[in-house]
UniProtKB/TrEMBL annotation:
Species lineage: Bacteria, Candidatus Ratteibacteria
Domain of life assignment: Bacteria
Provenance organism: bacterium (Candidatus Ratteibacteria) CG01_land_8_20_14_3_00_40_19
Descriptive protein name: LPS biosynthesis protein WbpP
Annotated InterPro entries: Epimerase_deHydtase, NAD(P)-bd_dom_sf
Entries under Pfam families matching the protein: Epimerase (PF01370)
């Protein structure tokens, strides 16, 4: 069986979160980014 890994990232719109999401996408992960855009 082949399982795809899905990852939830909170704070994905910030500097660190967005770069972390980019790196995971390049490695083939399926990600969901959540951010309330309240600060920053």
């Amino acid at each position: 069986m082949n399982y795809s890994q899905q990852i939830l990232i909170t704070g994905g719109a910030g500097f660190i979160g967005s770069h972390f999401c980019d790196n995971l996408l390049k490695k083939g992960f399926s990600i969901i980014c959540l951010d309330n855009l309240l600060t920053g």
